[in-house]
Specification:
The chain has a six-stranded antiparallel β-sheet, covered by helices on one side. A two-stranded antiparallel sheet has the order 1-2. Helices cover 41% and strands 14% of the residues. With 417 residues, it is an alpha+beta fold.
Length: 417
């Protein structure tokens, strides 16, 4: 028995090491338990470990108004009679009927924010018409979107090829998929889609028109469903000259959650139009190209490979480092929001490094530090086994030097005069 446990422990540790670059940040302890052979002592050790972990959380022993406890019971009563989602008006009715009534909307919102934070309900203040009482019900709704292909055999008359290639959900296809769902899901379809969009699962992207205007696409896209890989030749597809490329900025993670790139792409598509080339949109599996300006002569690409997310700006006109810095600010802000606010992943962190302008997005070693080389100096590129001259695309180092030089010049002129 002891030998079997050790083998099982080694297999588990080996598996975890393959998933996490630094497993010590994620693995607190290991319990090897059999639900058919182990005695109660083994389960008691696990129970005590869970209890000790719970005591260390931020919500442990927090003071909680009695009326909120009563409100929780009222919501649970709705669940017991099969209600998965209720309107805000229904919630107000429940609040008025509890022993210590809650009649103020602000207090109800406070209660709902807390319940959402601890995962009991799903509620967003900017789409507050409904409250989802059972997160699993929402997960089931997610499933009907992100695993839509399971309906392919049931609905063979519909066009599936475009969905599998581009991730674009045709309205007719969506309608037919929801017809296969429960009545409450069909009734609340629009709210479900709004919530799924809030979770960065789907996006109605911005697109540039021929006149240079920006408009919102009527159909939504599901980036995590994309199967077409273009990472290796994405710059070739857009015919990007090497002279138009910035250095490749890399967010190098100790552990990169697989869904992070899809969430990041969705977030950026809210702020930047999706690029199109030869009638093909620039959205692919783990990769996306965005327009920065209305001319299409400034774009940036996000690409995931291994344990890193890469950012490169393409500018066909004169390079403007302020454009690069603005894009970097948005991308880094969204990564931090997704990691720290959306999912609260305390053990996920990254470092910012860089590779040369002509790098392959699949090359995941040989990074350089930002303070390692100064503008105009040569550096050795491990990927190409040669030297390149470094250009500062991200920090504004060159513009700072020019600014200081100008100050010195005017200072000297002032002394001379």
């Amino acid at each position: 028995m002891r030998k079997d446990e050790e083998q099982c422990r080694k297999r588990l540790e080996s598996y975890i090491d393959k998933i996490f670059k630094d497993s010590k940040l994620h693995l607190r302890s290991i319990h090897l338990i059999s639900n058919t052979e182990d005695v109660d002592d083994a389960f008691e050790k696990l129970r005590n470990d869970i209890f000790a972990t719970a005591k260390s959380t931020a919500n442990w022993n927090r003071e909680y108004p009695v009326k909120f406890i009563q409100m929780e019971k009222a919501i649970n009563s709705e669940l017991t009679i099969g209600k998965q989602i209720i309107s805000f008006e229904r919630l107000k009715e429940l609040g008025e009927k509890i022993p210590l009534p809650i009649t103020d909307n602000k207090e109800l919102h406070l209660f709902l924010r807390y319940q959402h934070e601890i995962g009991n309900v799903i509620f967003f203040e900017d789409i507050s018409s409904y409250i989802i009482l059972d997160p699993q019900w929402l997960a089931n709704a997610f499933t009907c979107i992100v695993t839509a292909q399971q309906f392919q055999l049931e609905l063979p008359h519909l066009q599936w090829d475009n969905f599998k290639k581009t991730g674009k959900m045709d309205p007719k296809l969506l309608e037919e998929i929801f017809k296969k769902q429960s009545a409450d899901m069909r009734i609340h379809k629009e709210h479900i889609l709004e919530v799924i969009e809030k979770f960065d699962i789907i996006i109605y992207p911005l697109l540039l028109t021929e006149s240079g205007n920006v408009q919102r696409e009527h159909s939504f896209y599901v980036p995590c469903m994309l199967q077409t890989l273009k990472i290796k030749d994405i710059d070739v597809l857009f015919n990007v000259p090497n002279a138009s490329k910035s250095t490749c900025l890399c967010f190098v993670f100790s552990f990169l959650p697989p869904y992070l790139i899809s969430n990041l792409i969705v977030s950026c598509l809210r702020e930047y139009p999706l690029a199109v080339v030869k009638g093909e949109i620039g959205l692919f599996k783990d990769c996306c190209v965005f327009n920065i300006d209305r001319t299409g002569c400034a774009k940036f690409v996000l690409a995931k490979s291994s344990h890193m997310i890469q950012l490169q700006v393409w500018q066909w006109n004169e390079v403007d480092t302020e454009v690069n810095q603005a894009v970097l600010k948005v991308v880094e802000r969204e990564i931090n929001r997704i990691v720290n606010t959306r999912y609260k992943l305390k053990t996920v962190s990254f470092e910012k490094k860089w590779k040369c302008e002509t790098t392959s997005f699949s090359f995941d070693t040989g990074f350089l530090e930002f303070d390692q080389v100064h503008d105009g100096k040569k550096y050795y590129c491990e990927e190409h086994a040669t030297t390149h001259k470094y250009k500062d695309y991200w920090s504004g180092e060159k513009s700072k030097v020019m600014f200081l030089f100008a100050l010195d010049y005017f200072h000297l002129v002032g002394i001379y005069l």
